Each structure stands twice: as structure tokens, then as C-alpha cells.
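[audit] Reproducing an earlier prediction to check determinism. Same input, same settings, fresh worker. If the C-alpha cells differ from the archived copy the diff job will pick it up downstream; this log only records the rerun itself.
[audit] input (438 residues):
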Amino acid sequence: MTQRKEALQVPWIRSDLPGPRASQLIATDEQYTSPSYTRVYPLAVERGYGAVIEDVDGNRFLDFTAGIAVCSTGHCHPRVVAAIQQQAGKLLHMSGTDFYYGPQGELAKKLAEIAPGDGAKRVFFTNSGAESVEAAFKLARYHTGRQHMIAFFGGFHGRTMGALSLTGSKVVQRRGFAPLIPMVSHVDYPNSYRDVGLDSLQQLEDLFKRTVAPQEVAAIIVEPIQGEGGYIVPPPPFHRDLRALCDKHGILLVADEVQSGMGRTGKMFAMEHWGVVPDIVCLAKGIASGMPLGAIIARADLMDWGPGSHASTFGGNPVSCVAALETIKLLEEELIENARRAGGHLKQRLGELMAKHKLIGDVRGLGLMVGVELVRDRATKEAASTERDEIVQACFRRGLLLLGCGVNTLRFCPPLVVSKEQCDVAVGILDEVLRNWD
């Protein structure tokens, strides 16, 4: 059935956007749901399959958001759905922090085996990326007995109070919520395109000399590739040098792989591109291909908190765990390789667009985590932020789902099942839209 659906014309827009049913659904939703939700365009989803989304009026869209990098195996992959259905008929819930059941232990074993590093590891399960970051924050303080944390400007780690204290992405995310967790410092993340933060390691050393003794720092948290900050890939030595700096001062290195992990970049974990082994890895998003699940993976000797120190009622839910186990099988069998293959093709095609359209200042990324930075002038690198938002809207009207990240970057993070042909369609739509700005 999925293959038959994929053969249908996509995109296919048959109504105004939003259509009549979508307009009715949106009106009800906006009457009753929180105004804090950030709805970029009026998409009212009915179903999804592969890299395709259908709205409630029967319009078909090519999805290059994957539910914000969540649906790693595509929407409703038959094997993931079958695993969910089978488990749902056996056990929906029996809190894994109080009792035992097979899927949680099996998934913990698998994650410990595939995470970077050869030593023994342990896993704590959560429901989301923010919860994973909160757990890493607490564990770092507990294990080291230190209080201070360091994060990077542009980094996004979540919206709960601890995670928000580490986030340095947009002021709107922090405004109105003070006081946040104290003893958190930020330094620049290295961005070669904008010549910013290339002295990040020196900034850290200066921080240690002026305001924060390194012996008081529990952990440094970093995204291997900044997600919300603009899909920024740091210079090759950065993560290795950061690892060495942490080792020098006895500081834990926490890798926030919530968006970059689980095959997104063409490796199971993005840190593998640099051969770096973090002390703690934070996961969520693509781990269960649409089911709510997160985790932290830490060295076994590091995860030394006792019973009751931290817990989660729903973290490691059995249905989410079987979805994750099937997701990992699919990643290992074919989808990580497809992320490399399709991602390389997508990046190449977007690079060709850069030669045609002056609005494109940079194309960057690894695997199927690709960013297109838009500028008004390539010499000055003036950010084309308004144009970026208008282009996202124009692509939506033509049936391509994109999101922005950073100030002026288009984010390409399709499901890892996406084909080269679907990448060509997406690039073709963007090409058509960009002609209006030539």
C-alpha cells in the first residue's frame, strides 16, 4: 500500500491553502490550544507515508521536515507500525522506573552497544529532547559535585527550565521566564561562513581565567551540528579540541544529538564524523520515528546516581521502545546508507542552485541535515531573513514542506527514506521559487 501511494503524483495541490476542511480544523485548534505554538504555515495533516504528507483536503506535499527531524524511517513505515500494533496489543504501560519489561531492557542494551566508545554504558529513558538534556544536566552535577555548566550561543537544548538555561538560540525562547538556572555560561559556536567563534576554545580558556574556574565546571554541552542555530557544521578540529579541553580540566562532554543523531548525518551519531566519544549523549527526535521517546547514554561509571535520584513515569514506554528497536534495525540495514547517498545528491543539487541564484550564500551539512543560508549580498553576508520566511511560504504553496533555522537558513531534513528523485523535485520547486528573487 505504501509503495502504491508513493507512486502518486507528489506534490499535488487540489484546493486553496488552507482548504475548507483545513480552515475549519485550524479555527477550532486556534480557539482552544496554546498561542505559544509556532505554526509556520496552515498545514492541517490527515496522514503521512514515506516522505509524503496529505492534508485533510486531499492535498499532497513532499515533506522535507520529517516532523522536525523526527520521522527518521518516514511517515508510518510498515515495519514500525507493525511493531507498534503488536506491542499495543500486549502492554501499553507499566512504568519502567518501577518495574521491568523486555522492550526497555532490550533497547537499553542496543543503545549501549551502538553508542560511541568501547567501555560499558548505561541508559536513562525520557520522553523528549528537553527531558534528555535535563537528565544530562542533573547527572553531570550529581557525578562531578560541580555546579557550573557551559553551552554555546546559537545552541538549542529545549524549553524546560534547565534546558532553557542552556539554550542560546533566540531571545523569544527565554524572555519572560527569568530567573533561569544560575551558573550557566555561553561562548560562541564556530561558524566558518560568518567568521564567528573560530576562537571558541580560546573563549573557553579566557572564561576559565576570568569568571569561572574550570574545577567548578560540571559539563560542556554541545550540538555536533547546530540545529536551530542554522545547521552549522563546525571546523574539523573543533570537537576533537573540545574533547581535549574537557579532559584537561576534568569536565564532562555532553553531546546533544537530539537532532543530529540516529542516522540523520549519514552515521548513527554525528560525533562519529570526528571520532569523538562524549561522556553523555542526549537523544530523542528520530530515535523512535514518531513515537515520544528520548534517552541519555552515559559511561557506566559516570551514571552513578542511586535509586530515586531521577525517574520518569513514561520514559521508556514499551510501545515507544519497540518502535525504536525497529527504527534502529532499519537504520542499520539501509537508511543510514541512504542518508549518505541521498544527502550527498541533495547537497550537490543545492550547490548547483547556488551557482544560479545570488540569494544563496552557503550550502552546508552532512547526510540529510542540510542548510541553505540566504543572503542579500554575498560580499557582506547580510542575512536575508525576511526573504527566507517568504520562500518557506512560497514552497508550501507549491507543495514542498520546509522550515527555517537560524536567522536566515532553509532547513532540509527529510525522512531518511527520501529518494534522489524526490530530492530533485524539492530542488526544482526551490529553483522555481528563487527565480522571483533573481
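[audit] rerun output stored. Observation attached for the diff report: The mean pLDDT is 96.
[audit] end
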